[in-house]
Design a protein that fits this description.
The structure is a single chain. The protein is of the alpha+beta class. It folds into two domains: about 150 residues, Beta-lactamase (3-Layer(aba) Sandwich); about 140 residues, Beta-lactamase. About 40% of the residues lie in helices and about 15% in strands. The chain contains twelve helices and nine strands. A five-stranded antiparallel beta sheet has the order 2-1-9-8-7, sandwiched between helices. A two-stranded antiparallel ribbon has the order 3-6. The chain starts with 8 loop residues before the first helix and ends in a 7-residue tail after the last helix.
Length: about 325
């Protein structure tokens, strides 16, 4: 008889939790909500960090909220905030055209070699970066607005600690995948693809594990939720640029299966996602029904051996549990 290989604990846990209901009954206290979130997080198989804050009362719930997680493309939100701040102070213009060079092109879900030689406005780059999580637009804006140190400096100015911005998208991709970046004079989509393909599966897995332990380009869920609060309250930008940022986050096209997925139809969500390797994230502002205000929700998953789809389901279930709790909590009404 053929011997059946043993089932790993993570796979078994994943199978068992797949039969769990999509949502739990609404928690009646922050402590109960935290317990529910921990139960939901189990099916991700890795480490899950959550911070949910009602922006009216400040009541908060955390699960590993002070742990650092790779941001992946979540770091595009701080870059957008810096860019729009520079618009506010007259050092940038939304209509300024920026030439895109072949060396500016980046690997990603949607790669567009035809962008080389075109010029895009700052507004267009912001839209591409926030709506579609475009890596080329991200690195162009990061360079144009002063680089990682400028992003961190402005985060400090608005009182947001716990977010590290040290790398560009290209830096993150090369470290996570373990490939050497070609010199700028030779850089193009073709040479980046070749460099990425040169890494063996074993080398990539080793690089991935090192990447997950690195503190660069990481954030705590608590810090991410605080940044969301600054945006929601208009404490980081002037009214017009803040409204523009929120409009772009509302139209995010990469988060359909995450925070938004299980919320009632028509619920307003303003979010930014992040995905790489064994990391899947989503942070956003969720509008509660009946004038109950807004909740900032930050969910990070790292070191997860299960599929991206299963991680997304965990994020969606966590967001729904948070939504149900704050929608039902008497303390959330009438503020």
């Amino acid at each position: 008889m053929k011997k059946i290989p043993p089932i790993s604990f993570v796979v078994l846990l994943s199978l068992l939790t797949s039969f769990a209901p999509a949502t739990l009954s609404a928690a009646s206290s922050p402590e109960e909500l935290a317990r529910d979130l921990k139960k939901i997080a189990l099916s991700a198989g890795g480490t899950v960090g959550v911070r949910a804050v009602h922006l009216g009362t400040g009541e908060a719930v955390s699960v590993d909220g002070a742990v650092r997680f790779p941001m992946a493309s979540v770091f595009k939100l701080p870059i957008a905030v810096l860019t729009l701040h520079r618009v506010d102070i007259g050092k940038e213009s939304l209509e300024r055209l920026i030439p895109i060079r072949a060396s500016d092109l980046r690997l990603g879900v949607e790669e567009e070699p035809e962008l080389a030689g075109q010029s895009l406005s700052v507004r267009e780059l912001l839209e591409r970066m926030l709506l579609d999580s475009d890596n080329t637009s991200c690195d162009v804006l990061l360079r144009e607005e002063g680089g990682p140190k400028a992003v961190e400096a402005y985060l400090g100015e608005i009182g947001v600690a716990g977010i590290d911005v040290s790398w560009s998208e290209l830096d993150m991709a090369s470290v996570e995948a373990g490939f050497t970046v070609p010199p700028e004079s030779e850089r193009s989509l073709a040479t980046l693809r070749k460099a990425a393909r040169s890494v063996s599966v074993k080398q990539r897995r080793e690089s991935e594990r090192r990447f997950e332990k690195d503190t660069r380009n990481t954030a705590t869920p608590e810090a991410a939720a605080l940044l969301l609060r600054r945006v929601s309250k208009g404490e980081a930008l002037k009214a017009d640029t803040n409204a523009l940022l929120l409009d772009m986050l509302r139209r995010c096209r990469t988060g359909a299966h995450r925070i938004r997925a299980l919320l009632p139809g028509g619920t307003e969500v303003f979010d930014k996602t992040g995905t790489t390797g064994r990391t899947t994230n989503d942070i956003g502002l969720v509008t509660l029904p009946n004038g109950a205000g807004q909740v900032a929700v930050a969910v990070f998953v790292k070191g997860s051996p299960v599929s991206v789809a299963r991680r997304e389901k965990v994020i969606a279930r966590i967001a729904r549990a948070v939504y149900d709790y704050y929608s039902a909590a008497p303390s959330a009404i009438g503020r």
